[in-house]
TrEMBL record:
This is F-box domain, cyclin-like protein. Residues 513-539 are annotated as: Disordered. It comes from Cynara cardunculus var. scolymus (Globe artichoke). Gene3D superfamilies: 1.20.1280.50, YVTN repeat-like/Quinoprotein amine dehydrogenase. Keywords: Repeat, WD repeat. PANTHER family: OS01G0185400 PROTEIN, WD40 REPEAT PROTEIN. Transmembrane segments: none annotated. Residues 513-532 have a biased composition (Polar residues). WD repeats lie at residues 243-282, 295-328, 429-469. The keyword Transferase does not apply. It holds the Pfam family WD40.
Amino acid sequence: CISYTDSFCINPTNWDFGASWVYRISISSEKNQENKRKNRNLMACNHPLPSTSTNHDSTTKVTDMDMDSLVHCASHLTLQDLSNMAISCKFLNRVVSSDSIWRRLFRERWPQQEAYIISQTSGVREAYMARYRALQQFKFFDPLVCDVYIGAKSSDLLFSKDSIIFSQGPLIQILDIDKLLEGKVVFAPLNDHRARITSMRLFPLKETSLFRNEAQINENVLVTSSCDHSIRLWWKGSCQRCFRGHNGPVTILSDKLLGDGTGKVFASGGEDSTVRLWSLSSSGKRGQHALKGTLYGHEKPIVLMSVTGHRASLIVSMSKDSKVRVWDASISASDRNSSCVGTTSVSGVPVGMKCHDSLIYIAAGSSIEAVDLRTMKRVFRTSTHQGKLYSFDIMPSNFLACTGGLGRAMLWDIRRSTGTTEACPMAELDGHIGPVTHLHMDPYKIVTGGPKDPNVNIWQADNGNQTNILISSPLDNAGCSGLAADGFRIVTAGYNQEEGVLRFRDFSNAVSSGSSTDQITGSKFWCPSTSGDADDSDG
């Protein structure tokens, strides 16, 4: 007889699935209650307490609990927790497969699909996952669409929760998505920079001295670099820190923070050929004492940076002359010779670079190559046969990479390229006009676009099949000047030398879907925009 309390819960994210199955949940039982009564009687009679050895009758394994009880507990978990629970063992996978759990998730995420949910007598989990996957891949004709005219050309688009962040020269604009969905255009301008913005990053607020309490645990700060030689940290609509130290324009910021635990730092690269390390925990509006180190060794401006995956203190930088250096931020920067722990070089103009585990993947010229950071030896190098690369992204955990060339993009299986100099692409993503300069890649989709092409193309990440074609903006003779995707949402920027516009799409509640073939071979104009001219349709 198991009695539950309000505090009883299962949190599979805290389980170590690599260890032996010894997970136990303490529960109340009739026998356990009887033992407690006996112990109290013994104490009252001044008898010694019974042995304190573990009483296995008072605990039980998760797998000893009945299915209905576990389903009841699991119905209160998030989608991520359910996913973790499903991969732990076959028994819990069966628990997670219960239709009652997925009906609740379906109803909470898509309440307008209530009739469809009720009609499903079985396979609700499969129906939920199929719709979730289709929405992630933008396989619908009727997303919510909002156009925002912004005047000048925009770049460096970012999603930050319920905001869209973009730059226009030295100006940073933050667009409130919630207000936009209410029909209001509300911008929060950040205008302290005096020259063009070169890089924008979002870092956790909890790693800064601005963090005050647990209510702020999921908030981020915006960090930007500029040609005005400065780096600025923004929060709550104003500049909280200004970092100065570079002797020229700051060209790039690290993609992640360096270090473990407290005292993390971020890195910057500049036209002065230096890499500089900055503390986010330093106080003072002017960022005094924030500069923790200056790393010398490059001879040309820094153009790319990436923090390694196997050691949080290592960062890789690449200069305009395609020279690559690995730095250890944990070593005192005063010792110029020891901070640099590895060097190499590649052929061609740098295009993109990304670290995963102990490997660094580099796209330069017309080739992709990987270097093992432990030995600085080249693992593989393969030509893309695209003449010149314009963009690059990679999902090493799925062994996939994508490159943007002239008129097409290519999807690569990294495993097929290992140890070779020539490799065939997994798929050719054709149909573009001009160079593919903008590329987004996540586990569900690939998004490609370019300044000469009025359309943005959507592809399945696992096989390269096309799922949709989206018009980047309502402007005539305008290409795509920028894009960002986040789950069910995408924002594209268009510019026609006179006017700039952002087009925001939210597929969360889209319902009209069709086959990829129907979308591509038929009209590209499927459904009127919810906030544009009646003549401007969109898919």
